[in-house]
User: Fold this.
Amino acid sequence: MHSILKGLQKDHINLAKVLDIMQLQLERIAEGDDVALALMFDASTYIQNYPDMIHHPRENKVFEVFKYRSGDEAEVFKTLIQQHEEMPDVTIKFKRLLNEAINGLGFISREELVKKIQEYIDLEREHMNLEEAVVFPLINKTLEDKDWKLLEELIETESDPLFTDKIEESFKVLYQSISGQAA
Ligand SMILES: [Fe+2]
Ligand SMILES: [Fe+2]
Assistant:
């Protein structure tokens, strides 16, 4: 498997860890623990800064080259590309919802808040699972060396701000809770 696809898979493994932490925080929020909202907010900032802004555009480039190579315009790619377009806005709205809840400005019930957070986590997970189960194996089977060479030129290598040796300050608490979870 080419290192670009391996890198995208690694991103998924990392995002899965973040989603697990979000799921755990959601249980606390459902029980009335508002401190958990802050960690939820940090996790959504991570999704905004890396998966939404860097990971998905990178996948779009791989999908484009796949389409060119195979002539395949399968519905699944359209679905994923559409989701890539929508997800940054979905994350912004999600952050706004959390921000309102943190500051006591939200007028929705806790039940409704929990439902909306669950929907966001599910959307992220389902999107990722579809790529892992259907699309990545197809890409791995189809793309040739010359395609990956082209992608090497098209894809820049911005690093992940959370899963790195130099974790950004704003993600330190989130990182600690993820590594605490793994331990
Ligand atoms: Fe994606
Ligand atoms: Fe992805």
Q: What stands out?
A: The two ends are 29 Å apart (CA to CA).
